């Protein structure tokens, strides 16, 4: 049952706060926005920490570097421990290590994501980023390079192009055992409460439909991410964790899949009308 937090009595609010030990929060649109920290969030995090709650930052944004995340949290008046930040590049690396992945990776993602993959010891190829001939006959040798790719990773890539998607499709179709892994698969990315832009989710959907199989999702709302979080932070009772987000399709859906309690804030990508429509 959906409840509006501000409408609760003091006693109900106290019971709600007592009902969880872990606060897993999205970042963009929840903790900060395009203009900086969201008013009151830093104080709220402090109150939660003082009450003994474990606060973890769970984002679908692998474009930011660790240093940038630390700077953003510092602006809130807090410090960020590296282990308390999870985003798709981190969860993908952990997943690949957990399955002892040894093969070549083709990645459609931003530079910080690529950097983490390479630092973890994986062999990664990307591209092409340069313009290609506008001819199917001439493009075939580019997209069918016959490299032994064993995993295709799709995440936010501001330089994504049609040739990259064609190349990914060729790798996946030529080898049924080639993994398809999704990171931040938001179809819409919130910039301000009234402005969203196209996300990487549509790219992944195109590939899934083309090859006839689903990707393993290591970002929100993927179930494997929930399992990673439970294991890493020792969450033994799912309902003792609260997931806070601003997007219904990613954050609320993820919390439900993982079995967590969920709290939707209207400071980012969702509005009251969106909530009413659910």
UniProtKB/TrEMBL annotation:
InterPro entries named among the record's database cross-references: HAD-like_sf (IPR036412), HAD-SF_hydro_IIA (IPR006357), HAD_sf (IPR023214)
Q: Name one Pfam family in it.
A: Hydrolase_like
Residues annotated to bind substrate: 59-61, 220
Superkingdom of source? Eukaryota
Q: What does UniProt list as catalytic? A: 26 (nucleophile), 28 (proton donor)
Keyword terms of this UniProt record: Magnesium, Metal-binding
Residues at which Mg(2+) binds: 26, 28, 246
Manner of cofactor binding, per the entry note: Divalent metal ions. Mg(2+) is the most effective.
Query: What's the protein called, per UniProt?
Result: 4-nitrophenylphosphatase
Q: Which organism is it from?
A: Culex pipiens pipiens (Northern house mosquito)
């Amino acid at each position: 049952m959906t409840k509006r937090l501000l409408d609760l009595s003091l006693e109900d609010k106290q019971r709600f706060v007592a009902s969880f030990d872990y606060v897993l929060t999205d970042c963009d649109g929840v903790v900060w926005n395009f203009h900086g920290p969201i008013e009151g969030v830093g104080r709220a995090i402090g109150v939660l920490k003082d009450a003994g709650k474990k606060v973890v930052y769970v984002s679908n944004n692998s474009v930011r570097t660790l240093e940038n995340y630390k700077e953003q949290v510092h602006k809130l008046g807090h410090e960020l421990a590296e282990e308390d930040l999870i985003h798709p590049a981190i969860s993908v690396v952990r997943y690949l290590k957990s399955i002892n992945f040894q093969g070549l990776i083709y990645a459609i993602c931003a530079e910080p994501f690529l950097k983490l993959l390479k630092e973890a010891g994986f062999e990664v190829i990307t591209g092409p980023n340069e313009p290609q001939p506008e001819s199917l006959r001439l493009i075939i040798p580019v997209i069918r390079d016959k490299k032994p790719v064993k995993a295709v990773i799709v995440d936010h890539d501001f330089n994504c192009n049609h040739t990259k998607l064609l190349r990914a499709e060729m790798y996946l179709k030529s080898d049924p055992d080639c993994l398809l892994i999704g990171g931040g698969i938001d179809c819409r990315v919130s910039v301000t409460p009234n402005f969203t832009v196209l996300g990487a989710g549509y790219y992944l959907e195109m590939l899934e439909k083309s090859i006839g199989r689903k990707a393993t999702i290591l970002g929100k709302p993927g179930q494997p991410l929930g399992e990673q979080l439970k294991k890493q932070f020792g969450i033994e009772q799912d309902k003792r964790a609260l997931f806070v987000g601003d997007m219904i399709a990613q954050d609320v859906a993820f919390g439900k899949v993982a079995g967590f309690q969920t709290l939707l804030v209207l400071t980012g990508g969702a509005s009251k009308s969106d909530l009413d429509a659910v």
